[in-house]
Amino acid sequence: MAAEKLSTRHLLGIKDINRDDIELIFETADNFKDVINRPIKRVPSLRDITIANIFFENSTRTKLSFELAEKRLSADVVNFAASSSSVSKGETLIDTVNNILAMKVDMVVMRHPYAGAGQFLSRHIKAQIVNAGDGAHEHPTQALLDAFSIRQKLGSVAGKKVVIVGDILHSRVAISNILCLQKLGAEVMVCGPTTLIPKYISSLGVKVEHDLIKALNWCDVANMLRIQLERQDIKYFPSLREYAMMYGLNKQILNSLDKEIIVMHPGPINRGVEITSDVADSKQSIILEQVENGVAIRMAVLYLLASQRD
User: Fold this and answer.
1) Quick check: is 254 in a domain?
2) Domain match, 93 and 229 both
3) Is residue 21 part of a domain?
4) Which domain holds residue 88?
Protein backbone atom coordinates (compact mmCIF):
# COMPACT_ATOMS: atom_id res chain seq x y z
CA MET A 1 0.00 0.00 0.00
CA ALA A 2 1.57 3.30 -1.07
CA ALA A 3 1.51 6.44 1.06
CA GLU A 4 -1.45 8.79 0.64
CA LYS A 5 0.61 11.91 0.09
CA LEU A 6 4.17 12.85 -0.81
CA SER A 7 6.70 13.36 1.97
CA THR A 8 8.00 16.56 0.35
CA ARG A 9 6.54 19.92 -0.78
CA HIS A 10 8.80 20.12 -3.84
CA LEU A 11 10.31 17.66 -6.32
CA LEU A 12 13.95 18.75 -6.38
CA GLY A 13 15.65 15.39 -6.82
CA ILE A 14 15.23 11.65 -6.37
CA LYS A 15 17.53 11.84 -3.34
CA ASP A 16 14.82 13.87 -1.53
CA ILE A 17 12.01 11.32 -1.95
CA ASN A 18 11.54 7.79 -0.63
CA ARG A 19 10.25 4.53 -2.04
CA ASP A 20 6.70 5.19 -0.80
CA ASP A 21 6.72 8.52 -2.67
CA ILE A 22 7.82 6.78 -5.85
CA GLU A 23 5.13 4.07 -5.53
CA LEU A 24 2.47 6.74 -4.93
CA ILE A 25 3.60 8.65 -8.03
CA PHE A 26 3.44 5.40 -10.06
CA GLU A 27 -0.06 4.49 -8.81
CA THR A 28 -1.28 8.01 -9.61
CA ALA A 29 0.37 7.87 -13.06
CA ASP A 30 -1.44 4.56 -13.76
CA ASN A 31 -4.74 6.43 -13.32
CA PHE A 32 -3.60 9.33 -15.51
CA LYS A 33 -2.53 6.92 -18.27
CA ASP A 34 -6.18 5.91 -18.51
CA VAL A 35 -7.10 9.60 -18.79
CA ILE A 36 -4.66 10.40 -21.62
CA ASN A 37 -5.89 7.41 -23.61
CA ARG A 38 -9.54 8.54 -23.43
CA PRO A 39 -11.24 10.52 -26.22
CA ILE A 40 -11.51 13.50 -23.80
CA LYS A 41 -8.02 13.75 -22.33
CA ARG A 42 -8.60 16.52 -19.79
CA VAL A 43 -9.51 16.46 -16.09
CA PRO A 44 -10.28 19.53 -13.94
CA SER A 45 -7.86 18.57 -11.13
CA LEU A 46 -5.68 21.72 -11.28
CA ARG A 47 -8.09 24.26 -12.72
CA ASP A 48 -7.36 26.76 -9.90
CA ILE A 49 -3.56 26.36 -10.16
CA THR A 50 -1.19 28.53 -12.21
CA ILE A 51 2.10 26.91 -13.21
CA ALA A 52 5.10 28.75 -14.67
CA ASN A 53 7.51 26.77 -16.86
CA ILE A 54 10.84 28.57 -16.49
CA PHE A 55 13.54 27.14 -18.76
CA PHE A 56 17.00 28.69 -18.56
CA GLU A 57 18.30 26.02 -20.96
CA ASN A 58 16.93 24.85 -24.28
CA SER A 59 14.47 21.98 -24.06
CA THR A 60 11.94 20.54 -26.44
CA ARG A 61 10.75 17.17 -25.10
CA THR A 62 10.72 17.93 -21.37
CA LYS A 63 9.09 21.33 -21.80
CA LEU A 64 6.40 19.98 -24.16
CA SER A 65 5.77 17.03 -21.84
CA PHE A 66 5.29 19.28 -18.79
CA GLU A 67 3.11 21.69 -20.74
CA LEU A 68 0.91 18.88 -22.02
CA ALA A 69 0.65 17.40 -18.50
CA GLU A 70 -0.38 20.81 -17.11
CA LYS A 71 -3.01 21.34 -19.79
CA ARG A 72 -4.39 17.81 -19.34
CA LEU A 73 -4.90 18.75 -15.66
CA SER A 74 -6.61 22.06 -16.66
CA ALA A 75 -3.95 24.26 -15.01
CA ASP A 76 -3.25 27.79 -16.22
CA VAL A 77 0.18 27.73 -17.88
CA VAL A 78 2.78 30.48 -18.23
CA ASN A 79 5.83 29.72 -20.40
CA PHE A 80 9.06 31.61 -19.88
CA ALA A 81 12.25 31.26 -21.96
CA ALA A 82 15.28 32.86 -20.32
CA SER A 83 17.10 33.55 -23.59
CA SER A 84 14.41 36.06 -24.63
CA SER A 85 13.92 37.57 -21.17
CA SER A 86 15.49 40.09 -18.81
CA VAL A 87 17.84 37.30 -17.66
CA SER A 88 19.86 38.04 -20.79
CA LYS A 89 20.10 41.62 -19.51
CA GLY A 90 21.56 40.52 -16.17
CA GLU A 91 18.48 39.97 -13.98
CA THR A 92 19.09 37.52 -11.10
CA LEU A 93 17.30 34.20 -10.67
CA ILE A 94 15.39 35.37 -7.58
CA ASP A 95 14.34 38.66 -9.25
CA THR A 96 13.09 36.75 -12.28
CA VAL A 97 11.06 34.30 -10.24
CA ASN A 98 9.74 36.95 -7.84
CA ASN A 99 8.46 38.92 -10.82
CA ILE A 100 6.66 35.82 -12.06
CA LEU A 101 5.31 35.08 -8.57
CA ALA A 102 3.93 38.63 -8.42
CA MET A 103 1.62 37.39 -11.15
CA LYS A 104 0.27 34.89 -8.56
CA VAL A 105 1.93 31.71 -9.78
CA ASP A 106 1.46 28.63 -7.55
CA MET A 107 4.10 26.31 -8.98
CA VAL A 108 7.36 26.68 -10.85
CA VAL A 109 8.75 24.00 -13.18
CA MET A 110 12.37 24.99 -13.74
CA ARG A 111 15.32 23.85 -15.83
CA HIS A 112 18.60 25.58 -15.04
CA PRO A 113 22.26 25.08 -16.09
CA TYR A 114 23.52 25.22 -12.48
CA ALA A 115 23.27 22.32 -10.04
CA GLY A 116 21.17 23.17 -6.99
CA ALA A 117 19.23 26.04 -8.60
CA GLY A 118 15.88 24.49 -7.60
CA GLN A 119 17.09 23.88 -4.04
CA PHE A 120 18.23 27.50 -3.80
CA LEU A 121 14.90 28.77 -5.08
CA SER A 122 12.84 26.58 -2.74
CA ARG A 123 14.47 28.31 0.25
CA HIS A 124 13.62 31.81 -1.02
CA ILE A 125 10.13 31.67 -2.52
CA LYS A 126 6.76 30.28 -1.44
CA ALA A 127 5.79 28.52 -4.67
CA GLN A 128 6.33 24.79 -5.06
CA ILE A 129 9.30 23.87 -7.26
CA VAL A 130 9.61 20.99 -9.71
CA ASN A 131 13.15 20.44 -10.95
CA ALA A 132 13.09 19.81 -14.72
CA GLY A 133 16.88 19.37 -14.77
CA ASP A 134 19.64 21.31 -13.02
CA GLY A 135 23.06 21.18 -14.69
CA ALA A 136 24.65 17.73 -14.48
CA HIS A 137 22.97 17.19 -11.10
CA GLU A 138 19.45 15.66 -11.29
CA HIS A 139 16.46 15.19 -13.58
CA PRO A 140 13.92 13.50 -11.30
CA THR A 141 10.89 13.23 -13.59
CA GLN A 142 13.00 11.55 -16.29
CA ALA A 143 14.19 8.94 -13.78
CA LEU A 144 10.61 8.38 -12.60
CA LEU A 145 9.28 7.90 -16.12
CA ASP A 146 12.17 5.55 -16.97
CA ALA A 147 11.53 3.37 -13.91
CA PHE A 148 7.77 3.52 -14.56
CA SER A 149 8.39 2.32 -18.13
CA ILE A 150 10.48 -0.64 -16.86
CA ARG A 151 7.71 -1.51 -14.36
CA GLN A 152 5.12 -1.34 -17.17
CA LYS A 153 7.17 -3.64 -19.41
CA LEU A 154 8.54 -6.13 -16.87
CA GLY A 155 5.90 -5.95 -14.14
CA SER A 156 8.35 -4.79 -11.48
CA VAL A 157 11.64 -2.93 -11.08
CA ALA A 158 12.83 -4.90 -8.02
CA GLY A 159 15.50 -7.47 -8.85
CA LYS A 160 15.97 -6.26 -12.43
CA LYS A 161 19.44 -5.54 -13.83
CA VAL A 162 19.74 -2.17 -15.57
CA VAL A 163 22.84 -0.89 -17.36
CA ILE A 164 23.19 2.82 -18.15
CA VAL A 165 25.55 3.27 -21.11
CA GLY A 166 27.36 6.41 -22.26
CA ASP A 167 28.22 9.84 -20.91
CA ILE A 168 27.68 9.23 -17.18
CA LEU A 169 30.00 12.10 -16.22
CA HIS A 170 27.81 14.88 -17.63
CA SER A 171 24.41 13.20 -17.23
CA ARG A 172 21.77 14.33 -14.75
CA VAL A 173 19.60 11.50 -16.11
CA ALA A 174 22.17 8.88 -15.05
CA ILE A 175 22.41 10.09 -11.43
CA SER A 176 18.64 10.36 -10.97
CA ASN A 177 18.14 6.96 -12.62
CA ILE A 178 20.71 5.28 -10.36
CA LEU A 179 19.07 6.69 -7.21
CA CYS A 180 15.54 5.84 -8.36
CA LEU A 181 16.31 2.31 -9.55
CA GLN A 182 18.19 1.49 -6.35
CA LYS A 183 15.31 2.75 -4.18
CA LEU A 184 13.04 0.37 -6.11
CA GLY A 185 15.38 -2.61 -5.61
CA ALA A 186 17.08 -2.87 -9.01
CA GLU A 187 20.77 -3.66 -9.61
CA VAL A 188 22.52 -0.92 -11.59
CA MET A 189 25.64 -0.95 -13.74
CA VAL A 190 27.23 1.91 -15.68
CA CYS A 191 29.18 1.35 -18.87
CA GLY A 192 31.29 3.68 -21.00
CA PRO A 193 34.85 4.86 -21.61
CA THR A 194 36.90 5.49 -18.45
CA THR A 195 36.97 9.23 -19.20
CA LEU A 196 33.15 9.44 -19.06
CA ILE A 197 32.67 7.49 -15.81
CA PRO A 198 33.02 9.75 -12.74
CA LYS A 199 35.46 8.50 -10.10
CA TYR A 200 32.90 8.68 -7.29
CA ILE A 201 30.38 6.43 -9.07
CA SER A 202 31.33 3.19 -7.27
CA SER A 203 30.52 4.91 -3.94
CA LEU A 204 26.87 4.88 -5.10
CA GLY A 205 26.92 1.08 -5.05
CA VAL A 206 26.81 0.56 -8.82
CA LYS A 207 28.87 -1.84 -10.90
CA VAL A 208 31.28 -0.37 -13.48
CA GLU A 209 31.97 -2.07 -16.81
CA HIS A 210 33.94 -0.78 -19.80
CA ASP A 211 33.06 -3.63 -22.18
CA LEU A 212 29.67 -3.04 -23.81
CA ILE A 213 29.06 -6.69 -24.77
CA LYS A 214 29.68 -7.89 -21.20
CA ALA A 215 27.36 -5.18 -19.86
CA LEU A 216 24.57 -6.10 -22.31
CA ASN A 217 24.87 -9.82 -21.51
CA TRP A 218 24.51 -8.96 -17.80
CA CYS A 219 21.46 -6.71 -18.02
CA ASP A 220 17.69 -7.00 -18.48
CA VAL A 221 17.43 -3.34 -19.57
CA ALA A 222 19.92 -1.09 -21.39
CA ASN A 223 19.41 2.68 -21.09
CA MET A 224 21.51 4.31 -23.83
CA LEU A 225 22.54 7.91 -23.13
CA ARG A 226 23.66 10.42 -25.72
CA ILE A 227 27.06 12.07 -25.64
CA GLN A 228 26.51 15.55 -24.15
CA LEU A 229 28.86 17.51 -26.37
CA GLU A 230 27.37 20.82 -25.17
CA ARG A 231 28.68 20.12 -21.64
CA GLN A 232 32.13 18.91 -22.66
CA ASP A 233 34.89 21.48 -22.49
CA ILE A 234 37.67 19.03 -23.43
CA LYS A 235 37.85 15.94 -25.66
CA TYR A 236 36.93 12.81 -23.67
CA PHE A 237 37.43 10.37 -26.58
CA PRO A 238 39.14 10.53 -30.00
CA SER A 239 36.04 10.81 -32.21
CA LEU A 240 32.30 10.09 -32.38
CA ARG A 241 33.07 7.39 -34.94
CA GLU A 242 35.34 5.58 -32.49
CA TYR A 243 32.81 6.01 -29.67
CA ALA A 244 30.09 4.50 -31.89
CA MET A 245 32.33 1.53 -32.70
CA MET A 246 33.06 0.85 -29.02
CA TYR A 247 29.81 1.81 -27.30
CA GLY A 248 27.16 2.17 -29.99
CA LEU A 249 24.32 -0.36 -29.91
CA ASN A 250 23.38 -1.83 -33.30
CA LYS A 251 21.08 -4.66 -34.40
CA GLN A 252 23.95 -7.06 -34.95
CA ILE A 253 25.03 -6.71 -31.31
CA LEU A 254 21.43 -6.93 -30.09
CA ASN A 255 20.83 -10.17 -32.06
CA SER A 256 24.09 -11.71 -30.82
CA LEU A 257 23.12 -11.54 -27.14
CA ASP A 258 22.09 -14.75 -25.38
CA LYS A 259 18.79 -13.20 -24.23
CA GLU A 260 16.33 -10.51 -25.28
CA ILE A 261 16.86 -7.20 -23.50
CA ILE A 262 14.82 -4.00 -23.37
CA VAL A 263 16.35 -0.87 -24.90
CA MET A 264 15.62 2.64 -23.58
CA HIS A 265 16.80 6.15 -24.40
CA PRO A 266 15.92 9.42 -22.63
CA GLY A 267 16.25 11.36 -25.91
CA PRO A 268 17.13 13.21 -27.98
CA ILE A 269 18.69 10.32 -29.90
CA ASN A 270 21.92 10.75 -31.85
CA ARG A 271 21.10 8.01 -34.36
CA GLY A 272 24.19 6.20 -35.55
CA VAL A 273 26.24 7.22 -32.47
CA GLU A 274 24.94 5.62 -29.25
CA ILE A 275 22.15 3.73 -31.02
CA THR A 276 21.31 2.84 -34.62
CA SER A 277 17.90 3.44 -36.20
CA ASP A 278 17.14 -0.28 -36.53
CA VAL A 279 17.58 -0.66 -32.74
CA ALA A 280 15.69 2.55 -31.84
CA ASP A 281 12.75 1.41 -33.99
CA SER A 282 12.89 -2.29 -33.03
CA LYS A 283 10.32 -4.21 -30.95
CA GLN A 284 12.83 -4.35 -28.07
CA SER A 285 12.85 -0.54 -27.86
CA ILE A 286 10.42 1.18 -25.47
CA ILE A 287 11.53 4.73 -26.39
CA LEU A 288 8.08 5.87 -27.56
CA GLU A 289 6.46 4.33 -24.45
CA GLN A 290 8.85 6.45 -22.38
CA VAL A 291 7.57 9.59 -24.12
CA GLU A 292 3.92 8.67 -23.44
CA ASN A 293 4.70 7.71 -19.84
CA GLY A 294 6.47 11.04 -19.34
CA VAL A 295 3.16 12.92 -19.61
CA ALA A 296 1.42 10.57 -17.13
CA ILE A 297 4.30 10.78 -14.61
CA ARG A 298 4.44 14.58 -14.81
CA MET A 299 0.67 14.78 -14.38
CA ALA A 300 1.02 12.60 -11.27
CA VAL A 301 3.83 14.73 -9.79
CA LEU A 302 2.00 18.02 -10.36
CA TYR A 303 -1.30 16.65 -9.05
CA LEU A 304 0.28 15.19 -5.88
CA LEU A 305 2.26 18.33 -5.12
CA ALA A 306 -0.76 20.56 -5.70
CA SER A 307 -2.91 18.41 -3.41
CA GLN A 308 -0.77 19.34 -0.38
CA ARG A 309 -0.62 23.09 -0.87
CA ASP A 310 -1.19 25.21 2.23
Assistant:
1) yes
2) no
3) yes
4) 14-139+291-306
DSSP states along 250-275: -HHHHHHSSS--EEE--S---BTTTB
How deeply is 284 buried, as exposed, middle or buried, from its count of CB atoms within 10 A (0-12, 13-18, 19+)? middle
Residues 6+ apart with CB under 8 A from 125: 94, 97, 98, 101, 108
Per-residue pLDDT tens over the stretch 102-136 = 888 999 999 998 899 999 889 888 899 999 999 88
pLDDT in tens, 4-33: 899 999 999 999 999 999 999 999 999 999
For residues 96 and 86, the answer to whether their CB atoms sit within 8 Å is yes
Same domain, 150 and 98: no
Residues 132 and 210 placed together within one structural domain of the fold: no
Among 62-66, 69-73, 222-226, 235-239, the range scoring the smallest mean pLDDT is 235-239
Q: Are residues 158 and 58 in the same domain?
A: no
Burial class (CB in 10 A: 0-12, 13-18, 19+), 228: middle
